[in-house]
Amino acid sequence: MKTNNPTENKDFYTAGGLHVYFKDQLLNDDIDPERVIAKVEGTLPAHLRNEIDTIIFGHFDEFEERNINAFYDSGALYISNVQHDEADLYDDVIHEISHSLEVPYGYDIYGDQKIKKEFLRKREHLYNILWKEGFKYPKSAFLDVEYDKEFDTFLHQEVGYEKLSNLLTGLFISPYAATSLREYFATGFTDFYLYPNHNALKKVSPQLYNKLLYLYDPKKA
């Protein structure tokens, strides 16, 4: 990654009408943000981009406070200006767009409780796996679908995402998918659009896959 004297990034509007604004310059001048956002618009159906008006690149206090590098709020995506490469940026944008859909499509996603039940079954299995591996944590935390910073810290630092990734093979699509129901949805959504071959997602999280297929095109669900 190049971090000195980055090429100047200028604000622009996309073909889909998004305003892309640079509060701070991207630190990796090998990244072409116009190309990345064009790829997003070319991949996601228009109806799944309706909640987004603006993408803002820069550094924000929320990144430090919440230990994140991107977030969605009120029609805008706030994306870190520190990106490893274009694939990293594409991943961040797709992931945060998924969170923009939880209000307008909340009932379609969560209303029938199918992905919640699928998520909790996996969480209980995770509890048993970690217990056998010697990682003790209250079972009540595994039955809570909301994000909990202490639980995430336990998974990230005490267990470690690398070890967790090995333990969760075939159970969750990624370690971060285990942190909350919302992130279970968001990581699945991201995977759906990152990898055209959906075999792994369909096998690991069939109920979630069905929801994502419905969101993509209700006629195909």
Please supply descriptive tags for the structure shown above.
10 helices; 5-stranded mixed sheet; alpha/beta; 50% helix; 221 residues
Please give a structural write-up.
This protein is an alpha/beta fold and 221 residues long. Helix content is 50%, strand content 9%. The termini are far apart. It has ten helices and five strands, in the order ββαβαββαααααααα. A five-stranded mixed sheet has the order 1-2-3-5-4, covered by helices on one side. The longest helix is centred in the middle third of the chain and has 19 residues, at 114-132.
Blueprint of the fold:
Blueprint lengths: L11 E2 L5 E4 L10 H11 L10 E5 L2 H6 L3 E4 L2 E5 L5 H15 L5 H5 L3 H19 L6 H4 L6 H19 L13 H14 L4 H6 L1 H11 L5
Parallel strand pairs: 2-3, 3-5
Antiparallel strand pairs: 1-2, 4-5
Helix pairs in contact: 1-3, 3-8
Total number of helices: 10
Query: What is the gyration radius calculated from CA atoms?
Result: 18 Å
Biggest sheet, in brief? 5 strands, mixed
Q: What structural category do the secondary elements indicate?
A: alpha/beta
How are the strands of the largest sheet arranged? Answer: 1-2-3-5-4
Number of strands: 5
Shape: globular
* Strand percentage: 5-15%
Write down the overall mean pLDDT. Answer: 94
Instruction: Give, in order, the helices and strands.
Output: EEHEHEEHHHHHHHH
Short description:
The protein has 221 residues and is α/β, with parallel strands linked by helices. It has ten helices and five strands; from the N terminus they run E-E-H-E-H-E-E-H-H-H-H-H-H-H-H. A hairpin with a 2-residue loop joins strand 4 and strand 5.
